[in-house]
Amino acid sequence: MRILITNDDGINAPGLAVLEEIAATLAGPSGQVWTVAPAFEQSGVAHCISYAHPTMVARLDERRYATEGSPADCVLAALCDIMADGPPDLVLSGVNRGNNSGENAMYSGTIGGAMEAALQGLPAIALSQYLGPQTASLADPFESARRHGAAVIRRLLDYGDWTSDADFRLFYNINFPPVPAAAVRGARVVRQGRRRGTNFGVVPYTAPNGRRFMWAAGGAQDAPAAPETDVAVNMDGFISVTPMRADLTCHASLLEMTNLFDDVPIGAGAP
How many structural domains comprise the chain? Predict the structure, then answer.
């Protein structure tokens, strides 16, 4: 198997080293693991691409590259240049330092990398490690992902839904719970949740020269969410597996609103 890996924490991030181990296990002795990751941290860039300026790509070693761009840029660089002789069989993005459950998924560069791969028609999975009090005391805070990552991916590859409609291919978002590997209770396929009563915000800061700056800040990561969602099962010690696609349409509302404007005079014939 030929696997491409990327992340949003940067080429030197410890979670990327964990993903390299997982990918090597999946690829097997006859496979290949290609790494194309941001030169610097790109957390929170979502599905951003460097559309308005060029992106430098540097070869660090055999099948290992760094770019000055986002995770989505890294995937594009790999598919259109670095691996142009043949696409990967699988794209993995992560392992993110911190969860991408709930509303975090909307901001995640880790998910942005997987989404770009899916838009290019490739099987893709984003992986993130939830952190908390129980992981803070571990020698390896990524041990849940390191121990269970390959098995969960293998199960998805063998039995997951990899169908693709005319426009948008499915990809998967995996979050490992904030517990030691031995305390993981299993895995659950669940929908994306939303932490109640918490949002991203900013912390304003005035520099010594009087200029105004701000730091973006997330809300409480242990805030409750609806049952049977990624946040809820993660907090209960389960790995969450969430099928996603890049279609942001609310299909339920679309069906209900189909005839909403049929009797409204809009356009050239309006008075």
Answer: 1
